């Protein structure tokens, strides 16, 4: 039996986003069980635990599930991830904070049990800038870029990167924090209306996203100059603004839509058999796909681990090894019914964070769907790598860890 | 017009508008506090609940479908019809009146005469309860609220001011609608409280519920009436805020924006809610614009609203329009 | 009247301890007290009477520092009292009861009486948090005083009862106990016998006389029961609409035509 | 003024009948231990007794105001015009014509005097004109109120508040008024005045009164019949004139001994309580 | 008669003002203490400590602190979250600045710092009363959270603005960081709980406590009989904040290990602790424990019943949980408005009379 806990949030201020992710995560495992009898013949047991995006409940969930032989945690919250970094490290259980959490966890020599492949917040910032560079003929000299961000640890992540990139590319950055929950953003958007930045980048979550998109539409900010991080890129965020959201862009690190063979299987084995998680109405949405992608990566890591250790039942330590040896190739993905679903990457002891590929998706309001408008773009590793190392080293020093690989 | 001045005026106007939206929420608090001394923590959740119900009805959602499906293994979610907005609003109002009735019968009737903090606590229980019921009934995914209110830049104002001053002011259409509705509500409620028999009885109950009982005012009726009114105000607030940001849990947190308004205006004053809202709206927006964003790194609105209210209170402990606290021994 | 006098029943009354000079108190437009002067002597029972709304309670509030008069001076023990907070006045040895009972409803009778001792308890927070030693000794010493007063007022049986459960009359008595516990030099009583029947008033009168007798406490008393006032007090001030219309011994006041017109209605027997 | 109207004879209809009721507060404190009384139509009945005897509780039990103080009638019955009423809503009692004036006045502080009076007419549905007429009538009885009609009740003096409370009760056109300690804290002149008004309302409007009073002296002068309550029990009852002559009543409630009134100064001991029951 | 006090007579005032004047109560209290200190540490594991005992103990300290302010002194405060944050950040600064000093010192110092901040924000209480004050303390709440989020010095300039507790010890035993033992963190917090309860109890039964209660019940009367209202209110703010600071420090350093201020110490925390003391019983130390236990344990218990036993979907359980907690709060209030502590007292009164109803 392979135990995958799912620390989900189907209630609280971020429920609207937590639900599709949790559904995707669950449905993929259900699919594996129903279709393949688990992973490598070993059945999967998924334990769902409601955190409400609350760190204390997150801890409770962690403690109550770790004894069951939990293989990997995917808490979908930067706050809970920070909580779990020391705990899980001490307990030897891996954490996969996919596209969130502590960016410097990419440095596997320091963060042995923490993985954040395929990409992270700093990559996100850099990819967005690269996209803008592409649009502006390779130069952002003299441009103004505004960052609208959730005023929390999460939202502040890209500031450092953007400042560095600003120096490099010569754009001017202005910062616009929005307090939780972000229902009122008049000030921020009036400021944007006044300053007329060439582009707006957003790091938001929850209701903040909808309000931002709505306000942008209200002040008639050109939607295609407005780019959200992947957590600001779900259908929930754009639908309330209706047609006016048309053209809004968001990053993503996996493909969109339900046009992949795996969805047929999900329909057949999960939905039609009445085993779909939640209300079953989220399939194919951006966050559902992300949950599904996370589950797929976990399952692949488990397969890899089974291969390495030549055993069907896994321990968290073996799972960790599997994650560290994970290799995602196009062939593998096509095989899983997810052709061209995400970037290719390889995990190693030094690199727990993938190669920093991300793509840009754009919202088509008429079609009510996202579509990828770029290939996977790699982030500016020249700038980011030293930043990651610096932060990881600082953490290592602070907590007396001897980096090693 | 110099740019900075134009900007300041624009911020000021938008502050007024934001203030109106806060005041809409604060009004509900005032009504209930005025008639019963209950500080209704659940007001925000009531707005959420009303908005959820409205959105659910418009959409033809089956209430409790998720729960029913989980228990019976069925797969129902929608009736497959769409209810016209005005009818849905009426139906929602019926639900809110039902809620008012239930709240009175099941909760506050048993707590008559308790200390304010106990009543406050009961409303917290109510908030939890309603939040849970709302989620179970309509699901916690995000819904959009579309009852046909206009939204976005008002071009007429933009053009006119541009022609006049060389800078077009941004005013949101939704805010304009909100202001009109808020003005009507306040006038209506003030007339009700001041000049009708029920309004007088409501104020009497607030002063001394025992004495009100003794002259034959039915607490039950007055409280159900007031909670229904508060439910109505919650519905209005829910529609406004729901249109702005979609209907979801966070809607209930707008209560936090109403609190400074409430204490600045005075817990017992209907006009106070509006004036307080305007002062808070303008104050926090101007502060953010002139000081917060340039010098303090932004996101100062939340605490500044409270600080502003605090400063006012130090000079007028009962709020601007609150009833004077009679301190005699 | 330089240094006291001897009452009809032979008690020696001392010099002036408190003197109100030309007190005027306004609330917005309302003049609650208009230029009133009078004095209170050591060991005396001084009554203040007058129709409802005459400003009697307001006068007590001025004495206890709760209202600050717009004009006039308060002299206490021979010197002019500077502007003071009510708690500072209390610390000078002036205790009182209230017209609308102001007990601490959330506490037991004993605790209420002990609050009367607060001005005498000085142990710092630190020692109190440790309790053993200094704090405990002080508590015990003060507890003894409080218990003595509880005994004196015959409320032992309800010592541990929460005040909110008591009937009106008992509350009045507890309030008196709290005021007495402070061992005040001046005791201000605002309608201590309102809402009592004759028997209870007799008891209350007895307590007041005994306090005055045993501890030599000076007493200022507001009361509407003329029987009580005339019997108990040594001198009476009469107020009407904020003005003083009479001042003197009970018999003088009783026969004052202004007082009869404004308050008594008929000459009291 | 010592000649009250003679006791109404037994033929007169009994309006209110309290039968052996028991009242418990907070479900533990037993306060009334079997109180029975009858109030005849058109009479003034007095309820006397010391502090904490249960007068207020009895009145509240009748008007059903106990509920909001966590009190409960656990035994016995209360009948008004022979209908059991102790399950009714207080508002319903007012509709039936029973209204209480509470101890301690309880005016609506923030309402003006006139608004206070109008609130009294809340349950009436006989039109504005009738209400205006009664308002006029109240002002006739209490001219003082007419002067203060626009002031907030919270800032009027104790006596005015008492008048306001009684006037407010009259505004509901009651058949019966339960009056709790109308004289408390009032100057002697005012006490007389208020009782005079009670008397004339009783005589002119035919309103029945049940009044709880500490001021036994005045109460027995104006009432027709009296009950004496002690620690939750009725210990004595009879026509007011008889009670006035009763030796014990004289001693304990009127403060008179054989030699007439004695001075408060001369009471030498306060350890001399005598009770009918103990 | 299950419960008796007959035969228990106090021969002196000292005995009479004991915390548990009745023998039966006293023994039960010793038993609980014995189990807490000498039995529980040997039988608990990570799950029990990290999900139940630590939050319970830490919230109990916060609840005691808030109860002093609200329950005893009558000053309604919604700034608890902000004050806990002060404790947490102070502790973090002390821990990183003086790595070799014992955790005990850090935690106590954090309490003191918080007490100072509490006094500062207590100043308006002289003029502002009741719910107005409650809302005014929200200014403290929002301002403090903003401040800690805003000024990098507080989080030692870390990239994300989170603070994480480094490993620190108490008499050589690790108390914070990833490698702690369940029993050690448990006992460390328990020590503070006992300390807080002891101090709070002593303060509330003496003259300081009476001043507080006098202010609570009727502030004007209190002032007229000689209580300095400003002093009384500010001492209440100080003592209350001291405990709340301690709980904030423990919450961050021992329980969570890493916090982000807006999430961990947001307005929700202020409400939560307030709920605890109202449900538990205002003005009761026991009530603080009861309330903390109720709000920490009930959700966990409901979750276990719903998800683990009945196997319902987590979201339905979470929603039902809200419904049930909300419903129970209302039912408890109707049954006994003065909280669990009062329920317990009434139960004892009834037991004492049992089998007679009155
Ligand atoms: N705080 C206040 N604000 C406004 N007016 C006040 C205040 N306190 C007293 N008054 C007014 O001052 C006048 C005197 O009041 P006071 O309470 O002193 O009367 P009193 O002589 O004690 O009457 P009573 O016998 O009815 O108690 C009244 O008209 C009252 O309304
Ligand atoms: N809410 C209550 N809770 C508990 N006990 C109460 C309550 N109200 C009154 N009592 C008790 O009931 C008894 C009777 O009280 P009640 O108020 O009826 O007396 P009363 O005859 O009106 O006395 P008074 O002349 O002092 O007003 C008293 O012993 C009192 O302590
Ligand atoms: C989906 C989430 C991981 C994103 C969120 N803003 C967080 O970092 O906490
Ligand atoms: Mg007075
Ligand atoms: Mg009474």
From TrEMBL, chain B:
<keyword id="KW-0472">Membrane</keyword>
<dbReference type="Pfam" id="PF02653">
    <property type="entry name" value="BPD_transp_2"/>
</dbReference>
<feature type="transmembrane region" description="Helical">
    <location>
        <begin position="289"/>
        <end position="315"/>
    </location>
</feature>
<feature type="transmembrane region" description="Helical">
    <location>
        <begin position="45"/>
        <end position="64"/>
    </location>
</feature>
<dbReference type="InterPro" id="IPR001851">
    <property type="entry name" value="ABC_transp_permease"/>
</dbReference>
<keyword id="KW-0812">Transmembrane</keyword>
<dbReference type="GO" id="GO:0005886">
    <property type="term" value="C:plasma membrane"/>
</dbReference>
<dbReference type="GO" id="GO:0022857">
    <property type="term" value="F:transmembrane transporter activity"/>
</dbReference>
<keyword id="KW-1003">Cell membrane</keyword>
<dbReference type="GO" id="GO:0006865">
    <property type="term" value="P:amino acid transport"/>
</dbReference>
<protein>
    <recommendedName>
        <fullName>Branched-chain amino acid ABC transporter permease</fullName>
    </recommendedName>
</protein>
<feature type="transmembrane region" description="Helical">
    <location>
        <begin position="217"/>
        <end position="241"/>
    </location>
</feature>
UniProtKB/TrEMBL annotation, chain C:
<dbReference type="InterPro" id="IPR003593">
    <property type="entry name" value="AAA+_ATPase"/>
</dbReference>
<keyword id="KW-0813">Transport</keyword>
<dbReference type="InterPro" id="IPR051120">
    <property type="entry name" value="ABC_AA/LPS_Transport"/>
</dbReference>
<dbReference type="InterPro" id="IPR003439">
    <property type="entry name" value="ABC_transporter-like_ATP-bd"/>
</dbReference>
<dbReference type="Pfam" id="PF00005">
    <property type="entry name" value="ABC_tran"/>
</dbReference>
<dbReference type="GO" id="GO:0005524">
    <property type="term" value="F:ATP binding"/>
</dbReference>
<keyword id="KW-0067">ATP-binding</keyword>
<feature type="domain" description="ABC transporter">
    <location>
        <begin position="18"/>
        <end position="266"/>
    </location>
</feature>
<dbReference type="InterPro" id="IPR027417">
    <property type="entry name" value="P-loop_NTPase"/>
</dbReference>
<dbReference type="InterPro" id="IPR032823">
    <property type="entry name" value="BCA_ABC_TP_C"/>
</dbReference>
<dbReference type="Pfam" id="PF12399">
    <property type="entry name" value="BCA_ABC_TP_C"/>
</dbReference>
<protein>
    <submittedName>
        <fullName>Amino acid/amide ABC transporter ATP-binding protein 1, HAAT family</fullName>
    </submittedName>
</protein>
Automatic annotation (TrEMBL), chain D:
<dbReference type="GO" id="GO:0016887">
    <property type="term" value="F:ATP hydrolysis activity"/>
</dbReference>
<keyword id="KW-0547">Nucleotide-binding</keyword>
<dbReference type="InterPro" id="IPR027417">
    <property type="entry name" value="P-loop_NTPase"/>
</dbReference>
<dbReference type="Pfam" id="PF00005">
    <property type="entry name" value="ABC_tran"/>
</dbReference>
<protein>
    <submittedName>
        <fullName>High-affinity branched-chain amino acid transport ATP-binding protein LivF</fullName>
    </submittedName>
</protein>
<comment type="similarity">
    <text>Belongs to the ABC transporter superfamily.</text>
</comment>
<dbReference type="GO" id="GO:0015807">
    <property type="term" value="P:L-amino acid transport"/>
</dbReference>
<feature type="domain" description="ABC transporter">
    <location>
        <begin position="16"/>
        <end position="256"/>
    </location>
</feature>
<keyword id="KW-0813">Transport</keyword>
<dbReference type="GO" id="GO:0005524">
    <property type="term" value="F:ATP binding"/>
</dbReference>
<keyword id="KW-0029">Amino-acid transport</keyword>
<dbReference type="InterPro" id="IPR003439">
    <property type="entry name" value="ABC_transporter-like_ATP-bd"/>
</dbReference>
From TrEMBL, chain E:
<feature type="transmembrane region" description="Helical">
    <location>
        <begin position="101"/>
        <end position="123"/>
    </location>
</feature>
<protein>
    <submittedName>
        <fullName>Amino acid/amide ABC transporter membrane protein 2, HAAT family</fullName>
    </submittedName>
</protein>
<keyword id="KW-0812">Transmembrane</keyword>
<feature type="transmembrane region" description="Helical">
    <location>
        <begin position="130"/>
        <end position="148"/>
    </location>
</feature>
<feature type="transmembrane region" description="Helical">
    <location>
        <begin position="271"/>
        <end position="296"/>
    </location>
</feature>
<dbReference type="GO" id="GO:0005886">
    <property type="term" value="C:plasma membrane"/>
</dbReference>
<dbReference type="Pfam" id="PF02653">
    <property type="entry name" value="BPD_transp_2"/>
</dbReference>
<keyword id="KW-1133">Transmembrane helix</keyword>
<dbReference type="InterPro" id="IPR043428">
    <property type="entry name" value="LivM-like"/>
</dbReference>
<keyword id="KW-0472">Membrane</keyword>
<feature type="transmembrane region" description="Helical">
    <location>
        <begin position="316"/>
        <end position="335"/>
    </location>
</feature>
<feature type="transmembrane region" description="Helical">
    <location>
        <begin position="183"/>
        <end position="200"/>
    </location>
</feature>
